[in-house]
Design goal:
Helices cover about 40% and strands about 20% of the residues. By secondary structure, the chain is an alpha/beta fold. The chain folds into 2 domains: about 70 residues, arginine biosynthesis bifunctional protein fold (2-Layer Sandwich); about 120 residues, Roll (Ubiquitin-like (UB roll)), CATH 3.10.20.340. The strands form 2 sheets. It has a 5-stranded mixed β-sheet with strand order 5-4-6-3-7, with helices on both faces. Its main location: cytoplasm. It is found in: Cytoplasm. It holds the Pfam family ArgJ.
């Protein structure tokens, strides 16, 4: 729930909130499952007076982005925040679909947990997006952090550096599809034995 003192019409508030939600909270995934109680609400008191809509939406975006990352970091058993950015896509839908496929992949999640820069698992997650047959794996570029791992592959010392990077509390995967100009970013977390314990021991 978000509160603001901005004076803003219900229509403008709804539009701004939906825009921001669609690129923040609707772009987070811990384990692909959602709750029947998942809800996002914004309330405006109007006490602070009128606002410039672009500036308001930018400020709202900053708040919701912070909350989105907190949701991912707070996933059951999570130790690493994963950010997946897909760019050079045909359209936003393609970029988001591919990014979600990567961040939701158990094999990618466990590779991140094990600090294993296994680009093949990322390629697999891209390849299983069957609705997008215009994605040519030969044109795809995959990076962990800023280091390209496909098609240009790194040597042993580079792999050691990447593994050290992936032992941090945040890992970024960057994929260029080279099918267009659109991009999307999503957030998730690694898959750990803590996740299994928490959900195996939990009872209603």
């Amino acid at each position: 729930m978000v509160f603001t003192d901005a004076k803003i019409s219900a229509e403008d508030l709804d539009r701004c909130f939906r825009n921001v939600i669609n690129r923040t909270l609707n772009c987070v995934s811990v384990d692909t499952d959602t709750s029947t109680s998942d809800t996002a609400i914004i309330i405006a008191s109007g006490k602070a007076g009128a606002v410039e809509l672009v500036a308001f939406e930018d400020a709202l975006d900053a708040v919701l982005l912070s909350l989105t990352k907190q949701v991912a970091r707070d996933g059951e058993g999570a130790e690493t925040l994963i950010e997946v950015c897909v760019d050079a896509a045909r359209d936003y839908a393609q970029a988001k679909t591919v990014a979600k496929s990567i961040v939701n992949s158990p094999l990618v999640k466990t590779a991140i947990h094990g600090a294993d820069p296994n680009w093949g698992r990322v390629a697999m997650a891209i390849g299983k997006c069957h609705d997008y047959n215009d994605i040519n794996q030969d044109n795809v570029v995959i990076r962990f952090g800023t280091q390209e791992v496909y098609p240009h592959q790194v040597d042993d010392s580079g792999l050691q550096a990447l593994s050290a990077y992936m032992k941090g509390d945040e890992v970024r995967i960057h994929v260029s599809l080279n099918t267009g100009t659109q991009s999307a970013t999503v957030w998730g977390c690694d898959l750990t034995d803590g996740y299994v314990r928490i959900n195996a021991d939990y009872t209603t």
